[in-house]
């Protein structure tokens, strides 16, 4: 009587042992797959980390180059601003000088017209001797030269008010 029960117990024990072994094999396979997956994941993460490091280094180099280019660009912009300021100043001087020149020419044309009218009147009145004396004298020329020099000084000192001081500081 015990033997058939022992056979059944043994059979049940063997079945449970087989199930336990199957679970153990399944667990080992699962753990092995997890370890393998972790290994692949670690390899992938390490590779990505290298890519990130390379990209970071390239980005750092690019940023340094950009900073250098920005410094050069700022210096160039400053030089351009200085050049533009000088050009604006030069243009202002030219405009002022042209305006003064046109004013002087207009004034001189008015003087010539007055002289023409005066000479015409003298010819009409047959004042040839006085006309001859007036044209022979260099007084008119000297007077006009004096006005020209005075006008030049006025315009020049208006355009360059510090010229005399700058010249004296150099002497």
TrEMBL record:
- Keyword Transmembrane helix present in the record's keywords: the answer is yes
Q: Which residues cross the membrane?
A: 24-45
Coiled-coil portions: 52-90
Q: Which Pfam families match?
A: DUF6377
Q: Which residues form the DUF6377 domain?
A: 1-171
Supply the alphabetized keyword list.
Coiled coil, Membrane, Transmembrane, Transmembrane helix
Protein name, entry field:
Transcriptional regulator
């Amino acid at each position: 009587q015990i033997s058939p029960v022992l056979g059944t117990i043994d059979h049940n024990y063997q079945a449970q042992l087989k199930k336990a072994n199957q679970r153990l094999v399944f667990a080992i396979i699962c753990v092995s797959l997890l370890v393998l997956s972790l290994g692949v994941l670690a390899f992938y993460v390490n590779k990505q980390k290298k890519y990130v490091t390379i990209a970071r280094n390239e980005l750092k180099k690019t940023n340094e180059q950009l900073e250098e280019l920005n410094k050069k660009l700022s210096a160039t912009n400053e030089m351009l601003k200085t050049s533009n300021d000088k050009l604006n100043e030069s243009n202002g001087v030219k405009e002022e000088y042209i305006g003064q020149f046109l004013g002087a020419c207009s004034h001189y044309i008015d003087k010539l017209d007055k002289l023409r009218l005066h000479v015409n009147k003298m010819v009409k009145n047959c004042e040839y001797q006085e006309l001859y004396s007036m044209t022979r004298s260099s007084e008119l020329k000297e007077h006009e030269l004096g006005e020209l020099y005075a006008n030049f000084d006025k315009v020049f000192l208006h355009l360059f008010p510090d010229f005399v001081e700058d010249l004296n500081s150099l002497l």
